[in-house]
Design goal:
6-stranded antiparallel barrel; alpha/beta; 7-stranded parallel beta sheet
Length: 741
């Protein structure tokens, strides 16, 4: 009776709101399952929704509801689908929800967040240019001045420009590294034409940059290099948001309502079979699962049969291995074309390498300069260079150059006829290039590209019903949508929401929720993930705390303590447990940029620890990773090791890596030395308070982990306090190292 009374009350309220859809749904629920109604109403209220206002009768409404009116919008979005018109629009500044009831709200919010990110990044770059002194720019490592330049051959059709100091001596410390976008100018990048390039590699005395357009008079005068904002990423994310929400055209994805969380039961909806049309042609036998563990096999089976799958891979559990084997299964089933993507070039290269090792025909889209050297043969550019039609194309291109050279000497009718011949020739060249590109793309079983790279014009007209995204928790939601709107009908997201979130530069955009991944939001909606439970990286003692704290004690060891012997050279507090915390009574300092921190006392102690580890000969420099959460400390450590002998080939520390924690996600080393930096009387730990950063830092090591820090400061944070309690309980504080000279 109580259930019936509540149902009638809500129905009467709904009739007042003129929502017939809800009336039908509630009467249906009352007739068949009256005891369920109070629980449903309570759940909706807890989520901030009124049951009287909104109840979607169409449980799996993937194409958009026919009940809500299509909202007209000027510009590129002709019609926006908003399946729940009775819902009031979001207020400006309102926190982003887990479930988006209104399509329009999602579009408006995400569009605003990516605009804020671009605006703030651009403003930061321009502020540096116009207000920072030359000394400050150099100290921050974001600019290089007074360089001389020369060309040095070509790289897949583009010029290589070498930048050096005027005296050919060592360059100042800087942040330019392989794959970075740089702006090339004379002296004032905000007031003159700049050339954009990509760093090919770096050395102590030079920087090699690949450019699409060679700077004029490259050998004359001096040059300046700056880090720039990425406009291309913003534009492709905006286009993806438009396609995701537009009801016109053939773009977007049938998974829209599911991805928005706008379904009644998200797990039932995700587990539906994918609606992929066309006949599959088996290309080979089903791959053997013998080299995969039980949790990896279970994840693959789920992903093969359902339209949306989350695979959560804690550190060292083989996320990428699972992803490549899953793609191999899809390829053998003839399920192509497949799109394999990730946020970073490093992660995409890992997918590419794994696929090639399994014998899958994988093709890498993107500039070869951003791809690892030994994988460049699998890039589109490399395959086009070796295409059977390349000789014919080269002949036409040579002929075209000859025609253009003869043009200035012609007049009148002859010149007009020559223009016509050049135009005809150019069309033929373009037709042949398009044909060659299409043939290479058609032959591939898997296309590999970064999430933003999936928006490249080469893939503009192509549809990919199956999309797999690795490191999905490092991609912002708009970035993740770029591959998804390529016609995705079956989606696999591989990641770990207990590790670091997407990197967002804008504080405004971060506060608005741009640093939350699609993977993380779907977990919050209640979508179940497939957890990989066997880790193959860490000594069992190094697995113990992260498993208990972050993974409900569900991680198992795929390697024994005997397979991860403690490295010699360092005096471990317990030789059976190769982990140590070295207390350091240091003082943190703010850097030139004002946004980072360093700690000279800790840096000096790190140098001593590394020297001890190398002294016996058990480890080589390339076996050790030195990490810190702050770029200021990374620069301080880099300077210190340069003064101590250097890290270039032939020098004492050649191969030693010094990076930020954020830059080390997905990496591993025999030994990790972690400098925590923060040491102050106020107990401020900054972004060390993000437990995910601690999780990443303490799960990179295979045989040994050494942390250096100020325990009193760190204990002001709850997660760090728990970790230090665990260290104390296991008697792993290395006070003897603290007091050594």
């Amino acid at each position: 009776m109580l259930a019936l009374f509540r149902a009638k009350r809500v129905v009467h309220a709904t009739i007042g709101a003129n929502d017939a859809n809800v009336v039908i749904a509630l009467l249906f629920a009352t007739e068949h399952q009256p005891t369920q109604l109070p629980a449903v109403e309570s759940r909706f209220k807890n989520e901030g929704f009124s049951l009287a206002k909104r109840f979607n009768l169409h449980t799996y409404d993937d194409e958009g509801s026919s009940i809500g009116e299509n909202m007209a919008r000027k510009g590129s979005v002709k019609r926006m689908n908003s399946a729940s018109d009775p819902e009031l629009p979001m207020l400006k500044g309102e926190p982003a929800p887990d479930r988006w009831r209104r399509s329009q709200d999602h579009f408006t919010t995400m569009t605003e967040l990516i605009r804020q990110e671009l605006d703030d990044e651009t403003q930061l770059v321009e502020e540096r240019w116009k207000t920072w002194s030359k000394q400050r720019l150099l100290a921050a490592g974001v600019s290089l001045f007074d360089l001389k330049a020369r060309t040095q051959g070509r790289f897949f059709g583009e010029d290589i420009v070498v930048f050096e100091a005027q005296d050919r001596g060592r360059l100042p410390e800087h942040r330019f590294s392989h794959g970075d976008i740089v702006l090339i100018s004379r002296s004032r990048p905000w007031g003159e034409k700049v050339v954009e390039g990509v760093v090919l590699d770096r050395g102590p005395t030079r920087l090699r940059v690949v450019v699409g357009e060679r700077p004029r008079d490259v050998r004359k005068g001096g040059w300046r290099l700056d880090r720039g904002a990425n406009r291309v990423a913003h534009d492709r994310m905006h286009q993806a948001l438009t396609a995701f929400h537009s009801t016109e055209g053939d773009g977007g994805t049938v998974l829209r309502e599911l991805l928005l969380g706008n379904v009644l039961d998200i797990n039932q909806s995700a587990e539906l079979s994918p609606d992929i049309r066309g006949k599959r042609q088996l290309r080979g036998p089903r791959p053997s699962p013998s080299n995969l563990n039980a949790s990896q096999q279970a994840a693959i089976e789920s992903a093969l049969s359902q339209r949306l799958t989350l695979i959560q891979g804690p550190p060292g559990t083989g996320k990428t291995t699972t992803a490549t084997h899953l793609l191999h299964h899809f390829a053998q089933q003839g399920s192509g074309p497949l799109l394999a993507t990730a946020e970073s070039n490093v992660a995409v290269d890992n997918l590419l390498e794994g696929l090639l090792d399994l014998g899958v025909k994988a093709l890498r889209i993107g500039r070869p300069v951003k791809v690892r050297e030994h994988l460049r043969s699998a890039t589109l550019d490399a395959l086009l260079e070796n295409h059977p039609m390349q000789e014919e194309l080269a002949f036409l291109q040579d002929e075209q150059r000859e025609l253009r050279r003869s043009l200035p000497s012609l007049k009148g009718k002859e010149k007009g006829l020559m223009h016509r011949d050049i135009s005809i020739n150019q069309k033929e060249i373009r037709r042949m290039e398009n044909m060659m590109t299409a043939s290479v793309l058609d032959e591939a079983e898997v296309i590999c590209a970064t999430t933003i790279g999936c928006g490249h014009r080469l893939l503009e007209s192509r549809k990919f019903p199956i999309v797999l995204m690795d490191e999905a928790t490092q991609a912002t939601e708009p970035s993740a949508l770029v591959p998804i709107v390529k016609g995705c009908r079956q989606l696999v997201l591989v990641g770990d929401h207990q590790q670091l979130p997407p990197t967002v530069l804008s504080r405004r955009a971060e506060k608005g929720g741009l640093n939350r991944s699609l993977f993380d939001r779907l977990i919050a909606c209640g979508l179940r993930s497939n957890l990989l439970t066997t880790q193959y990286r860490m000594h069992p003692i190094l697995r113990e705390f992260p498993s208990a704290r972050f993974y409900e004690n569900r991680l198992e060891d795929g390697c024994s303590a005997d397979q991860r012997p403690p490295p010699a050279g360092f005096l471990w507090p317990d030789w059976d447990r190769p982990m140590a915390f070295v207390p350091v009574e240091g003082v943190e300092e703010a850097d030139e940029e004002g946004k980072s921190r360093s700690n000279r006392d800790e840096a000096a102690k790190v140098l001593g620890v590394v020297n001890d580890l190398l002294a016996i000969g058990d480890l080589q420099p390339h076996d050790i990773g030195v990490i810190s959460p702050y770029n200021g400390q990374v620069r301080e450590l880099t300077r210190l090791f340069e003064m101590a002998g250097g890290r270039e080939p032939g020098q004492p520390y050649a191969g030693l890596e010094i990076k930020s924690v954020d830059g080390y996600q997905g990496r591993e080393k025999e030994v990790i030395v972690f400098s925590t930096v923060r040491a102050n009387d106020r107990g401020e730990v900054g972004f060390l308070a993000d437990y995910r950063r601690l999780n990443v830092a303490i799960t990179r090591a295979k045989r040994g982990l050494i942390l250096l820090g100020h325990p009193t400061t760190l204990r002001h944070d709850g997660t760090w306090r728990s970790y230090l309690d665990w260290v104390e309980e296991h008697q792993l504080f290395a006070w003897h190292v603290t007091h050594s000279s």
